[in-house]
């Protein structure tokens, strides 16, 4: 994640020439992180430190519409601008319906892209996101803190925050280990990392914060303050 006073932008673009060029052109106004794969863009997009996300329509791994839809389904409110070579009205509607805030067809002017990003980020701040409530607790994505209604405050790592947020957004859903591996962890991580971080959350917050569903995976638990 970029450490900069500039707005942080995640750029998901697989074109080996265009991607670095866009990153360079935006670099004067934004701290840009470039990735070339849709699944990696989705994984990074789940973090709360982005001020905006720029997503190409055609991507390997997971296409642009899939990235946007998946991020929105996980409660990610970060402004998203979609880039595409498909300029038809129907294609723009598809992008906006998927959850994009803005849509810019290729070829585009770099100054216009920067202006649209400034407009999208002007009023957005991760600190303004409402906390996620689970049981007796609230999870602040911006500060990575779990606050108990009884006064206890627990600092979490980014990975712990991301994992807990997945459960909070869909509290009734049972997530399998392979699903959680894709949603939260690195592609090189093994399935055991899921169990490890579930253990960390139980140890830090409450033994019942995440419930084991035998044979299926994990689900958000009661979240009572022990």
Summarize the structure in words.
By secondary structure, the protein is of the alpha/beta class. It has 2 domains: 8-127, Rossmann fold (3-Layer(aba) Sandwich); 130-220, Orthogonal Bundle (Arc Repressor Mutant, subunit A). It contains 8 helices and 11 strands. The chain has helices at residues 18-26, 38-45, 64-73, 89-98, 110-121, 158-169, 177-184, 192-204, and strands at 8-12, 31-35, 52-56, 80-84, 102-105, 132-134, 137-140, 145-148, 153-155, 210-213, 217-220. The strands form 3 sheets. It has a 5-stranded parallel beta sheet, sandwiched between helices. Strands 6-7-8-9 form a 4-stranded antiparallel beta sheet, with helices on one face. A two-stranded antiparallel sheet has the order 10-11. The two termini are 34 Å apart. The model has no long low-confidence stretch (mean pLDDT 85).
List keywords for this structure.
single chain; 226 residues; alpha/beta; Rossmann fold; Arc Repressor Mutant, subunit A; 2 domains; 5-stranded parallel β-sheet; 4-stranded antiparallel β-sheet; 8 helices; 11 strands
Per CATH, what is the topology of the largest domain? Rossmann fold
Look at the structure and give the mean pLDDT: 85
Just name the CATH architecture of the largest domain: 3-Layer(aba) Sandwich
* Residues in helix, %: 25-40%
Spans where pLDDT lies below 50 across 5 or more residues: none
| Head-to-tail CA distance between termini | 34 Å
What is the string of helix and strand elements?
EHEHEHEHEHEEEEHHHEE
Compute the number of strand runs.
11
Number of domains: 2
Q: Count the helices. How many?
A: 8
Assembly annotation: single chain
Considering the protein shown, what is the CATH homologous superfamily of the largest domain?
A: Response regulator
Outline type: elongated
User: What is the alpha-carbon Rg in Å?
Assistant: 18 Å
Largest sheet: 5 strands, parallel
């Amino acid at each position: 994640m970029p450490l900069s006073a500039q707005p942080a932008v995640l750029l998901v673009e697989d074109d080996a020439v265009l991607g670095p060029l866009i990153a360079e052109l935006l670099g004067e106004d934004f701290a840009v992180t470039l990735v070339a794969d849709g699944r990696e863009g989705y994984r990074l997009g789940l973090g709360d430190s982005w001020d905006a996300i720029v997503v190409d329509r055609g991507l390997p791994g997971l296409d642009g519409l899939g990235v946007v839809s998946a991020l929105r389904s996980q409660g990610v409110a970060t402004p998203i601008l979609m880039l595409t070579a498909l300029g038809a009205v129907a294609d723009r509607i598809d992008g906006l319906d998927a959850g994009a805030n803005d849509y810019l067809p290729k070829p585009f002017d770099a100054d216009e892209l920067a202006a649209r990003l400034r407009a999208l980020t002007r009023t957005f701040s991760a600190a303004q996101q409402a906390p996620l409530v689970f049981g007796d607790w609230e999870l602040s994505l911006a500060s990575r803190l779990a606050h108990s209604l009884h006064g206890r405050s627990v600092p979490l790592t980014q990975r712990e925050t991301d994992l807990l947020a997945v459960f909070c957004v869909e509290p009734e859903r049972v997530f399998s280990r392979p699903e959680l591996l894709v949603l939260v962890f690195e592609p090189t991580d093994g399935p055991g990392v899921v169990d490890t971080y579930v253990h960390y959350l139980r140890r830090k917050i409450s033994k019942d914060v995440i419930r084991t569903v035998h044979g299926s995976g994990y689900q958000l638990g009661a979240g009572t303050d022990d």
